[in-house]
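Lecture notes, unit on binding sites. The following record was shown on slide 14. It pairs a sequence with magnesium ion.
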Amino acid sequence: MNNKTLAIIKPDAVNDNYIGEIISLICKAGFKIKALKMIKLSQEAAKAFYEIHKNKPFYNDLVEYMTSGPCVPIALEKENAVEDYRKLIGATDPAKAAEGTVRKLYARSVQYNAVHGSDSDENAAKEIAFFFANKELIENYPA
Ligand code: UDP
Ligand code: MG
């Protein structure tokens, strides 16, 4: 699974009408979309997705934010996907993100930071499975 990662265009970026721009940057960076959908997370789902952060001071606010509107999870494929995608999106805090990164361009703040990216191959596999059934991942295209 070391060629896949999970991206999410978060509710702030959807609300700010950045879906198209963000997908364009992702595709131009050489990632292939394997699956994509728009979904409004329930409280239960957001809590489960961010379970790893449940003891962090920002957890409750994070769950509120991620349930505040629709988001767009995207399963991506590329060699070295996890690391390359995190490079593309930049630091968690947009104030610290490099020029030209997705968060520098489109995030509002460290909390409302436009996009999610998996942090390891192991978590990428889990996070893709959280949103997509195996059969929803498109294989072998373009033909
Ligand atoms: N977050 C926050 N305050 C913080 C750190 C993180 O609100 O001080 C939010 C932010 O939306 C971030 C998410 O919690 O994307 C998950 O945090 P993580 O440390 O995993 O950052 P990421 O992997 O998204 O860069
Ligand atoms: Mg993280």
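Take-home: Residues 2-136 form a domain with the Alpha-Beta Plaits fold (CATH 3.30.70.141).
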